[in-house]
Specification:
The chain is α/β, with parallel strands linked by helices and 470 residues long. The chain has 17 helices and eleven strands. It folds into three domains: 125 residues, no CATH class; 80 residues, no CATH class; 222 residues, 3-Layer(aba) Sandwich (Rossmann fold), CATH 3.40.50. The strands form three sheets. Strands 7-6-5-8-9-11-10 form a seven-stranded mixed sheet. Strands 1-4 form a two-stranded antiparallel ribbon. The longest helix has 23 residues. It is globular, with a radius of gyration of 27 Å. The structure holds 2-acetamido-2-deoxy-beta-D-glucopyranose (3 copies).
């Protein structure tokens, strides 16, 4: 008997339920195309009906090419399954699901009485203030047409009219409809966008958080997926009670490990696997015994590392709420929490479950990329802290947008703590000139040589106070 866990390469005949599923899907696709070939009139009639309605048939072409892409991924999965253990049965079934949904949509399109249902959706929600022909033109323009390929994205981003109240249109915040949004970057990667937004509403979302993060990093943020159930670890248990949760390793079974190299918490901490883990930016992050900002020498002018208490002693203003923008599992936020300060920890999942661990510790994770405007209102936070994140990789132009956004959310007299920014010696001047554009008061300003590498690098640690601007 073959065990499911020893998933073997697909030979000529399926030998597990998932393989059977793949096999059946491929067979049905095969028969679908055979039937189309046998009855070519059907498709050409459809194409004619599109043309007679004034819609180009490219949406159909697109759907077929999309289907081909997904079939390609599926076949590649089956092929690489022999060697690549990251291709799990669940990624197979996700891919099979995607193909099934695409077939569904295609069947819908071919049997719809008036053109593409996606276009029909647009028509239903058409903004009455816009002239009709503009709308049609949209679909003839290549860029616009590309943008609206995915039915689910269209459905999602179309304005959602508010309900009528007392026979009148309900006006909420001066608007009669809500416009759900997606990141502009999404429009530059329509094939990936389609892949991401192909899912069956009301069922479990595809297990593809790593793919979602890749899209976010390329500017597709926010992402267009709002109608499926996110996957959790199958044996999720209660997290630990607060306070003890801050410093205890979370339970392995509370983390969905599928997309991480490590498959348990000990691996994240282990020296042996350090090189394989893929988060060199934060080697000790998962070691919850390290209380970094408490284990540094006080008032050492040679040290780029300064303690939380030293920083807090530099300012008279109350520090109660803030943001840590760093590769972090929340250790800074935990130490601040013990000082009754609430810190949101903004980090991506850099090849490991950073956000999950922050949350399991009872702290607030903020899943945003460096390219996003922070979700805080102007002049609200007491503190922004960033450790070992912005360093020599960041361009001056991006740095300017980043520090100006930090400035926006900091309140007057709020504190910006740049914790060990580092770069090559000759680059430091350029970075400093960007930081100095904020014209903050320097509560502490320390530039020291970074000693852990042969290269000629410097650390800048700065504690800066935002002026009152009126
Ligand atoms: C961890 O989770 C598992 C599965 O939910 C549970 O059986 C176990 O008791 C948990 N361990 C701790 C220390 O809470
Ligand atoms: C939190 O833990 C500390 C020691 O780790 C303890 O002194 C304190 O009373 C705890 N606070 C709460 C609210 O449980
Ligand atoms: C934090 O707040 C608690 C409850 O108000 C208080 O007992 C504790 O002394 C405070 N801790 C610090 C470090 O201020």
């Amino acid at each position: 008997m073959q065990k499911l866990s020893s998933w073997k390469p697909l030979k000529w005949l399926p030998n597990s339920p998932l393989q059977t599923l793949c096999f059946i899907t491929l067979l049905s696709i095969f028969f679908f195309f055979i039937s189309t070939i046998i009855n070519p009139n059907f498709v050409s009639n459809r194409l004619n009906s599109f043309s007679s309605h004034g819609f180009p048939p490219s949406s159909l072409h697109h759907q077929i090419s999309n289907l081909q892409t997904h079939l390609g991924i599926l076949l590649q999965n089956i092929h690489s399954e022999e060697t690549d253990s990251s291709v799990t049965p669940s990624s197979f079934s996700d891919q099979v699901l995607r193909v099934a949904v695409l077939l569904d949509t295609l069947a819908d399109t071919l049997s719809a009485p008036h053109g593409d249902p996606a276009i029909a959706t647009i028509e239903t929600y058409r903004d009455p203030t816009r002239p009709e022909e503009t709308e049609i033109e949209c679909y003839e323009d290549e860029q616009e047409e590309r943008f609206v390929k995915s039915k689910e994205v269209l459905r999602y981003t179309n304005p959602k009219p508010n309900k009528l109240l007392d026979g009148k249109r309900k006006n909420f915040m001066d608007l009669e409809a809500v416009n759900p949004s997606i990141g502009l970057g999404c429009t530059r990667m329509t094939v990936d966008l389609d892949r991401y937004s192909t899912y069956k509403p009301y069922t479990s979302c595809p297990d593809d958080s790593d793919f979602a993060q890749k899209l976010m990093l390329r500017g597709c943020d926010p992402l267009p997926r709002r109608r499926c159930f996110s996957r959790s670890a199958p044996n999720y248990n209660h997290p630990f009670q607060f306070n003890s949760s801050l410093w205890i390793q979370p339970n392995d079974s509370n983390i969905l490990w599928s997309h991480y190299t490590c498959k348990n918490y000990n691996c994240l901490v282990s020296i042996d696997t350090k090189n394989k883990r893929g988060f060199h930016k934060c080697v000790d992050c998962f070691d919850l015994s390290k209380k970094r900002w408490e284990e540094v020498p006080l008032n050492d002018p040679e040290s780029a590392e300064i303690s939380i208490d030293e920083v807090l002693s530099l300012t008279q203003t109350p520090i109660r709420i803030g943001l840590d923008f760093s590769p972090t599992t929340g250790t800074f936020a935990a130490l601040m929490r013990e000082r009754n300060v609430t810190i949101a920890s903004a980090t991506l999942n850099l090849g490991a479950p950073f956000n999950e661990v922050i949350a399991l510790r009872g702290l607030l994770p903020l899943y945003v990329s460096i390219g996003s405007r922070l979700p805080f209102f102007d002049n609200t936070l007491d503190l922004v802290h960033s450790t070992l994140f912005l360093d020599g990789w960041i361009g001056f132009e991006l740095l300017e947008y980043v520090v100006f956004d930090w400035d926006r959310v900091l309140r007057p007299k709020g504190v910006l703590w740049l914790d060990r920014f580092f770069c090559k010696k000759e680059e430091m001047k350029g970075y400093i000139s960007v930081i100095e554009k904020l014209r903050y008061k320097k509560l502490l300003w320390r530039i020291v040589t970074k000693k852990d590498r042969v290269e000629n690098e410097l650390f800048l640690t700065a504690v800066l106070e935002k002026p009152l601007r009126v």
